[in-house]
Amino acid sequence: MTNADIIASIAAFFTMIGYIPQAIKTIKTKDTKGISFWMYFFSIVGVIFWLIFALMIGNVPMIFKNIAVIILGGLVLWIKTVNILKNREENIFRFKFFSKIQPNKK
User: pLDDT tens for residues 34-63?
Assistant: First the structure.
């Protein structure tokens, strides 16, 4: 294992560990009001690309850790999406910005 492989494995490990507390709390409580849909969405997309990279270079520890992050983050994102679709939370797909724009009154 090269130094770069070791650093990549350590980075993937700490990224994976970072997702565990939120995943456990979300799975237990099903409460996702304080969680950003878009943060989890883009994080998972990024980790998918890291997984592709790990597959390309054949770094097995990094592959498994990225799969774990995708699973943990995916569970949180799934619960968040279910809460939005069941109207338990505000629909993040509606943009409030446009509803607040008022025409100039002269």
Answer: 898 999 999 999 999 999 999 999 888 889
CA nearest 70: which of 35, 43, 97? Answer: 43
Q: How far is CA 34 from CA 16, 47, 89, 90, in A?
A: 20, 22, 10, 11
Buried b (16+ CB within 10 A) or exposed e, 77-102: bebbbebbeeeebeeeeeeeeeeeee
Alpha helices in 1-106 (DSSP H): 3-29, 37-57, 60-85, 96-99
Measured between alpha carbons, how far is 50 from 67 in angstroms, rounded to an integer?
10
> How many whole angstroms separate alpha carbon 18 and alpha carbon 10?
12
Give the model confidence (pLDDT) of 57-101 as tens digits: 988 888 999 999 999 999 999 999 999 888 877 766 665 555 555
